[in-house]
Amino acid sequence: MTYQEVVEKAKRQERNVTGKVAFIPCDVWENGNQINLWTYWQGYQLNDIDEKGVDILLVGQDWGAPYRDVNKAVLESINDIQNGVIGAFYGPTQSPTDKRLAKMFTAFGNVDINSINPGIRLFFTNYSLGYRSGSETGDMTKTIMKLDSELFDDLVAAIKPKIIICLGMITYEMVVGSCVKDFSKKLQAGEPCKGFYPKNNSIPVYGVAHPGSRGLQNVGGDEAIMKKAWIKIATEYYEKFGGDFSPEYQPDFDAASSHWINRDRNSVHMGPVALKEKIEAFIGAHNTCALATASADMVRNTPIEYNYVDSCFYFFSEGGLKFKGLKVNKNVGIAIFEPYGGFGQLKSLQVQGVASMVEPFSEEYLKLMEHKKIPVEAMKKLPQAMNLIKVVPSSYDYLDSDLKKDGFGSRQHLDV
Fold this sequence. Notes:
By secondary structure, the protein is an alpha+beta fold. Helix content is about 35%, strand content about 20%. The protein has 2 domains: about 5-240, Uracil-DNA Glycosylase, subunit E, CATH 3.40.470.10; about 270-415, Pnp Oxidase, Chain A.
């Protein structure tokens, strides 16, 4: 049976289900030529599927309720694909579930499921091919899913996947044909469940956590643990089928970020008054820093002259992308440092602070102009007065190798 013959068989299948899960006709699916609406994300573009098969068959439980408002944009994209609109694509959607699934697939290396050419031959489908009315999720049973067991077997025979990945326990049990113990326990340890497809035991079947909120809860809310299972699947895949692959490095960000905090607990600390004097002496010995500002999609690190007046930093500026960050995020970072001359000659200062804008020609603005010896009339002749950024420090991290000579730790922290 060819893939398209399986699709036509699926369209003839009756799914008369009522109760908590009720199926309704889905015109968008029936007007197309794919086994499932999800296949319009990955799989529909494989025109040579009968000859070359697929690398990975991803199986979900069921597609959900297509005619809910939340799915309107996806259905429009599927319509565009069916009508041959150039550039039409199922994703990327704004769904947290779909975004998390895309992250999981990066375990296979340079694989992007939000591309029409994802880098590997993928095929997405759901085990149950019915479309719901009402609720999007919940209440699915194996009895309902069994209505499409024969079609699923026909699909696997037609597209010949190298491996099958199942999202969630009930889907995994349907594919392997048996119940499993400790499904969640294995996933919490970063291990996928593994079995073999009963009709062809050369095809490994893996069970992983569903990328939705409930699946994430089942692994303790930790995406890194969820992804460990995918990395192990990817490792086995490339070991068996070849390819240029190295398991994705998983850094321990929490351990790295707390490294110096933990070291500081056993360090010899300076008194706050003496430390503030050291810090202000360092600030006074320099006049240029790196000012870091950030928005949701941008970080800007600007080399800029500073003025340190009344324990605050001030910056005159004509403009620049740093103001994009300041518009939405008043938290900034300042770094002042000397050239690296070896570990015994380290000197730098990192400042966390809150930024605000000083009104042009206000009392505070005029005070800084006087400090900088800028004539008021010269500033007023400009087409637009220069912006004045004020940063009130909230904490300092001072590094000075010479502090060891006095019996102190070279790193000192001061909260304001």
